[in-house]
Structures are given as C-alpha cells and as structure tokens.
Amino acid sequence: MKVRSFKVEKSLAEQAWEIVRRRKTSLSSEIRKRVERIIDENIPIDDLISSSELTILTLKIPDDLDSKIEKYLTTAQVKRSELFRKAIRMMIEEEYESKDKESFQTGIVS
Asked: Taxonomically, which superkingdom (predicted)?
C-alpha cells in the first residue's frame, strides 16, 4: 500500500468529505474507484484549479493500482495530482447527478 498526497481546492475537499461521511465510506476508496474509471475509460483530464485556497489530501493506494497509475501518467502525460483532482470532481458530479435524479423521481425539488 502506498500513501500519496496531493493538493486540491479546499471547497472541493470539504464537499468530498461530506459525501463520504453521508455514504459512510472512505475518501481513499471513493477516489480509487474514480481513478480506475478514468484510466480504464481514458477520460480526459481538464485540471483547472479555481481557487487559491488549497488543502492537502492523503490517500492509500494499493501497489497494483499505483503501478497502473504510474503507467497512465507516463502515457497520458499528466500529473498525479491532476488525476486525483479529476477523480474528486467526478465523485462530486456523480453525487449531484444522483441527487437530481432522486429529486426528479420523488418530485422533490431543492
């Protein structure tokens, strides 16, 4: 198991922590899922940092996934932190999409 740290906008980190608290899961596992999907589906990474206020997040990455990430970073020519930030953004987008779908199905609009 490797421990990797990266910088992310504080507001995104707070949203991500709120999601994992609600789901009763870990941030590392949620980000790992998205990282694997980004690599497997070759999802483009658009890394735009929208805030000057950053915080550091630390993840646990299994050795096999870390090797897969290393290969991807070399071929895609992106930074590890860009990949992890994209994974966090995906997690937040998926959460909002599921809430929108849920609101639509129940007729509740927030």
From this structure: Archaea
Query: What does the CA dihedral 57, 95, 20, 41 come to, rounded to 10 degrees?
Result: -60
CA–CA dist 36, 51 (Å, integer): 26
Q: How far is CA 51 from the centre of its chain?
A: 17
- The predicted-structure confidence for 66-75, as pLDDT tens digits, reads as follows 999 999 999 9
Residue 70: Cβ within 10 Å count: 11
Distance CA 49, CA 31 (A): 18
Contact assessment for residue 53 and residue 2, using Cβ atoms and an 8 Å cutoff = no
Other C-beta atoms closer than 10 Å to the C-beta of 87 total 25
Rounded to two decimals, the pTM is 0.84
